[in-house]
Design a protein that fits this description.
249 residues; Rossmann fold; 2 domains; 9 helices; globular
Length: 249
């Protein structure tokens, strides 16, 4: 299998009550690539993301992950295969600490039942993995703090930590910096850059500073079709992209 075939989206169409939202989308994501999907509101980005992550089934077309057809699989099935989505709306256990939120994901990934945790070696292994993720997302100073009192940026970092706890092969991030201050956005860029350094990332993001800071490849979705996919430098100067989305600077 070539690197270009790690995730392949082929001729994806999606209709809602006769309204065509996606029309023949083709996309390839390489292993260890950070791939951003951008486009104006209504372009179909969230619909495409929902199809990749299993929330929606495509009307037609196929999605291949490591040469396996995953079209129409449920989110929990995709999670077991290694596709993990972090949602735009924070999705954490607010009453639990940062550490316990991430540890619950680690336990779930390893399929350990609660009675196993009476054995010290299981506690040690789970706790070590949890602590490593806490440090990866930069939350070690608040690891014992309940999620409910974290700042918005810290909650988003925790959400990404929970995503990492599933040991994903591909991370799907939906607007990870939405609603953040400039300072929080800068911290988020550095954290995402760090945790995806050797991982495959697909990201939807409106903030172009975030996109150009992180992406190896950018695909522009326009009226349900891929307008162009290329490296950031070429996307920035592409007149079609300027006309459709970026605008003249």
């Amino acid at each position: 299998m070539s690197m270009a075939d790690y995730l392949r989206i082929s001729k994806i169409h999606k209709d809602f009550s006769g309204l065509r939202v996606l029309e023949g989308v083709d996309l390839k994501v390489r292993e260890s690539e950070r791939h951003a999907i951008i486009g104006p509101n209504g372009a179909g980005k969230t619909t495409l993301f929902n199809i990749i992550s299993g929330k929606f089934k495509p009307s037609s077309g196929a999605i291949l992950f490591m040469e396996q057809d995953i079209s129409g699989k449920q989110p929990h099935e995709l999670n077991r295969l290694g596709l993990a989505r972090s949602f735009q709306i924070t999705n954490v256990f607010r009453e639990l600490s940062v550490f316990d939120n991430i540890r619950s994901g680690v336990r779930s990934r390893h399929g350990l039942r609660y009675h196993f945790f009476r054995r010290p070696e299981h506690n040690r292994l789970i706790n070590e993995r949890t602590e490593a993720i806490v440090h990866e997302v930069g939350l070690q100073k608040v690891m014992n703090t309940p999620a409910s009192v974290l700042s918005y940026g810290q909650q988003r970092a925790l959400e990404i930590g929970i995503t990492l706890s599933t040991e994903p092969k591909i991370i799907l991030l939906d607007e990870p910096t939405a609603g953040m201050t400039r300072e929080e956005t800068g911290e988020a860029i550095r954290m995402i850059d760090r945790v995806t350094a050797k991982r495959t990332l697909i990201i939807i993001e409106h903030d172009m500073d975030v996109v150009f800071s992180l992406a190896h490849t950018i695909s522009v979705l326009h009226y349900g079709k891929i307008l162009v996919s290329d490296i950031p430098e070429k996307i920035r100067s592409d007149q079609r992209v300027k006309d459709a989305y970026l605008g003249e600077e």
